[in-house]
Amino acid sequence: MPLKKDRQTTPIIVALAAAMFFGVSLFFAHAQVSAVGPSSDQLDVISSSCQTLKQNLKTIQRTDSRTRSYLGSVYQTLLTNYITPLNLSLVKHNRPSTTITRLYSDILDSRSDFAEKFTSYSQAYEELLNVDCKNDSTNFYYKLENVRKSRVALNDSAKHLRTLFGNFYTATARLKEND
Amino acid sequence: MNEEGDKKNHNLLILGLVSTAVALITTAVSVYVYHASGDIYLDRSRPGFLPDEKEIEKELKEDYKFSENDEINNDSLENFLKNYKEVLDDLDKTPNPFAADTLSNESLDI
């Protein structure tokens, strides 16, 4: 017995097909935008000012290293002088706080994540600096894109850690209010 | 025979002195290059490493430390929060420590 066409289902099918068409079009449009590479002008600039470009990148690399060192010491200070002893004191004086314990764990995880992201970023950076930008400007540009992505992830990680430290402050302030 | 022995000792002495001099010179050059090139800052990624003299001013005040033996009361928490806030304020001086625009095409003149 053949299927009878239902007048109500036909518009639904058409609407679904249209939605799929637009969805797929949007996907490929986005993919095309993401895949856009450097222009020939940009490649020329990279090739001609390779030495200056690398010098600037090395300067940025050193600044990043100082920043990393500074942030590392701040994170260590917060953990060693504040967060860990407070957490231990709460347990010792029989006043455990699930919020503070959870935040402590999140901070430790986030700090490890930050350290890993910095390592990945540094490795990507070293790969970039090892490329001969004068003769291989295309590869240099794509490596630069990788470094940029790593840098965004690293910055997000640092900002997330700052948020957690802020949340810890709030949780401790609440603890004080309840005291 | 004595002359031969003297000569050997003399040569040995010269060898020792030259080796020491070469070692000292190469070490001095390495340390100079290590500082001048900025590579020292790459090694400084390890937290807690001894800071350079001019960076001491930037070092955080580490006088305050909450002890796990401290009582949890209003005063101790007040003190904790006050000092903790100071460290957070210091951290907030670099809200975007690895800002994306540093490596933008505009910044790098690409």
**Termini separation of chain B (Å)?**
75 Å
Query: Helical residue percent of chain B?
Result: 55-70%
Q: Summarize the biggest pleated sheet of chain B.
A: none
- Please tell me how large the radius of gyration of chain A is: 26 Å
SSE arrangement of chain A, N to C: HHHHH
Shape of chain B: elongated
Specify Rg of chain B, calculated over alpha carbons. 27 Å
Task: Classify the beta-strand content of chain A into a percent band.
Answer: under 5%
Distance between the termini of chain A: 78 Å
Fraction of residues in β-strands of chain B: under 5%
Number of helices of chain B: 4
Short description:
The complex is a heterodimer of chains A (179) and B (110). Chain A is mainly alpha-helical and 179 residues long.
What does this structure look like?
The complex is a heterodimer of chains A (179) and B (110). In chain A, 84% of the residues lie in helices and 0% in strands. Chain A is mainly alpha-helical and 179 residues long. Chain A has two domains: 1-36; 39-177. Chain B has 110 residues and is mostly helical. Chain B has two domains: 1-49; 60-96. Helix content of chain B is 56%, strand content 0%. Chain B is built from four helices and no strands. Chain B has helices spanning 2-36, 39-43, 74-91, 105-108. The longest helix of chain B has 35 residues, at 2-36. Chain B is elongated, with a radius of gyration of 27 Å. In chain B, 11% of the residues are buried. Mean pLDDT of chain B is 82; it is low at 46-50. Chains A and B meet through helix 2, helix 3, helix 4 and helix 5 of A and helix 3 of B.
Secondary structure: elements and pairs:
The complex is a heterodimer of chains A (179) and B (110).
Chain A: H1 9-34, H2 40-48, H3 50-92, H4 98-129, H5 137-177
Helix pairs in contact in A: 2-5, 3-4, 4-5
Chain B: H1 2-36, H2 39-43, H3 74-91, H4 105-108
